[in-house]
């Protein structure tokens, strides 16, 4: 067999050079890994911050919309025995009633009966009343718990009462998500539309997206000329105008909204001025309605439209318009065919930013809007703080998040297709 030296000579590379190259490659790989570790170390605090303050809360919200152990922790026997209820067209067997009576007695002694009553009341109207009333009148023993409970309150003789218990048995439930889109599951397991008097959330979601879309369009119409002026005025005038654009950022959101309440009321400055100059004879209602919501939200969100537009317009060279004009294009045609397409990235960024911010608005519609102008954030806050119904609040938030992601995906596809056609 030939020796290693002979092979290396035949290959044309001495063994020492080959070893040096291998060692150099290993050093380069180690150096590259060290650079990657240092880069990761620099972004690790930001990554941890995003995980703790953004990803984890959203994940917890999504989980709470389907995870429900509130009733099973208080009535474990009942939620376990409800599985014996096979024929959903008839009342449950005696074993379910016996487990229910035992759980009610224990939860009354442990002072947790209100938790079960509150959870069932989410699904069955009046459940809190008959659960608390039954717990107070429950005897120590009974020959038939089924008949005893029905005698105490006829609600225990209704199939839908136990359908509500079944839907709340956990640990996972579709009740909150279905309710958030005006749907419900019957005792037999069929998914149907909620009664008309209880179907409110789809209307609220529609209202939220309509208001957000209108605010975005108004901001675009008002912000485009301002951004154009900022990008084309001499520096001295542009700086003064920029200060005026940024001025609202230096004032609290609550203060700005309260100021609009003062300005827009029937005896406010705007109505008084219009009557003084003779434009109107009677005050115009501009507060606690949709007009007030649009005015206040546009005032607050307008800078978020102007700044992205300005950043894009500032990079557009005036020579393009001059070239189009010199080739015979009228000013309007040159603007529409040459200048406007170059501003589409700014329009897209500004519109998306304003729309995303506006769908989550709570304080402004709550202060200047009426009952028919409240957006979905108002109801999320209501279920979070007033009724402590975290499941419903999380479900509404989850539906809003999914709807927003779908709209963003569609919007991104349309904008991307337009950019490809322009290219």
From TrEMBL:
Keywords recorded for this protein, A-Z: Cell membrane, Membrane, Transmembrane, Transmembrane helix, Transport
One GO cellular component, as annotated: plasma membrane
Main subcellular location of this protein, as a coarse class: membrane
Coiled coil: none
Gene Ontology terms: biological process: transmembrane transport
InterPro entries in the record: MetI-like, MetI-like_sf
Domain called ABC transmembrane type-1: residue spans: 205-411
Localization (cell): Cell membrane
Membrane topology qualifier: Multi-pass membrane protein
SUPFAM superfamilies: MetI-like (SSF161098)
Transmembrane stretches, start-end: 39-59, 209-231, 238-263, 291-312, 319-340, 346-368, 388-411
Annotated region described as Disordered, given as residue ranges: 1-20
Family: Belongs to the binding-protein-dependent transport system permease family. CysTW subfamily.
PANTHER family reported for this sequence: ABC TRANSPORTER PERMEASE PROTEIN, INNER MEMBRANE ABC TRANSPORTER PERMEASE PROTEIN YDCU-RELATED-RELATED
Protein's UniProt name: Putative spermidine/putrescine transport system permease protein
